Every structure is written in structure tokens, then in C-alpha cells.
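Blinded run. Sample ID left blank on purpose so nobody reads anything into the name before looking at the predicted structure. Input follows.
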Amino acid sequence: MKTFSTLLKTELKLSLRDMNMFIFAICMPVVITVILGAIYGTTPAYEGSTYSSFAQSFGALSSIAILAGGVMGLPLLIADYRAKKILKRFKVTPITPVIILVVNLTVYFLYAVVSLVLVYLVSVIFFDFQLMGSWLQFVGSYLLTMLAMFSIGLLVGGIAPDMKTASTIASLLYFPMLIFSGATLPYDIMPTAFQRFADVLPLTQAIHLLQATSLGFPIDGVTFSIAVLLVLAVVCFALAIRFFKWE
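Blinded prediction complete.
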């Protein structure tokens, strides 16, 4: 336990010094929250709606940090550690490569939690947001989203032969999901063709789930999204374990 906590502190310090995750997982979701809040305010999502357009966006806003950590941060970190022979060196120490992965998963988990808290506080204080659904269901949805996105990151980082390949694959996954899944550009205002493309992206299903649980919609309406995320997580974790390259 002492080894884990010491390594966790070290990785957190290294991550904060790098600033990338601080910017993309902490600052960016808050900035986008302020922008969307200023645009939509308390305007109803549609005529007669009991929730605002901004409230409809809360689920999407809460997912940005998970996307940044799981799909961009984690693959690049693993590929970098492999390229620098860090994973290989740890094999001859009490710190196993598995501990390294668990520590870094914890780091990105902490970033996602801090981001969620900040987005929620900004939404409540400045834009009169109120979570209409069950907190238990929303937190469960958030954890499932995290599980699915982190599994993608582990798979990409695990199979990418070098840093350049990992960066290319991560970018090809990250930017389409950031733009088209509804995380930044609202899904409802997209043309039909864009929505069909967005429906293929796993983050789109995650956002549907987060929106439903934050707005208090029946959970049986998003069973497909839940199934997609669970299958994705199981498949990606299984492939990552099977084909993971430590060196």
C-alpha cells in the first residue's frame, strides 16, 4: 500500500508538471461549461420542457475529462513508458508493471472526479442547474463511461508499437468523439447524417446514458447504451490483456 501511495504521488506530480491533463481534463470542461451556459442559460430545451437546454448538456460536459484521460492521456503515457524502457526496468523491482497501470488509471480517475465536481459546481452556482435524476444512477453511468473509455486507452496503449502510432490512433479516436458525440457540439442540432455517424461512436452512447440519468429519464430507455458500453469495456480489456506489450 505504501508503494502504491508513493508512486501515486509521484505520478500526480509528473502529470501536473506536464500540464496537458490539467488543461484538457480540468480547465477545458469548465470553460466549455461556461460558454454553453452563457449561450443557453435557462432557456427550455423545447417548448413546455421542464429542463433547460443547458441541463441537457450537463451529461455531455461531464464526459469530457473521461475522454481526455482515457482515449488521449492513457495510450500516450503507456506508449511513452514502453519506449523509454520504464516498464521493462520495473520488472526487476518490487513495483510491477501492473501496479504502474493501476496507479495511472487512478490518476485519470481522480482527474475525472475533480472535473465532474467543478463542472457541477459551476453549473449549479452560475446557471441554476439541478440534477433531476438519481445521483446513484448518474454516478453509476459515470463509472461505466469511465470503464469503457479507459478500456479503449489501455487497448490502444497496449498494442501500439511506438509513440507515433499511439498518438495517431488516439487522435483518430479522440477528436471525432470530442466533436461529433455531443461532448462539445450538441447532438440535437446536428444534421441527420452527422447524427448517424455519431451514433457509431461509443462516447455518444455514454452521453445518451449520462443525459438520461441526469435528467431523470427512465433507465430502460438507454439499455442499448448500457449494453454497448459494457460489451466495449469487456472486449477492450480482454484484448488489452491478451496483446499487451510490456517492452
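Unblinding after everyone has recorded impressions. Residues 97-127 form the longest helix (31 residues).
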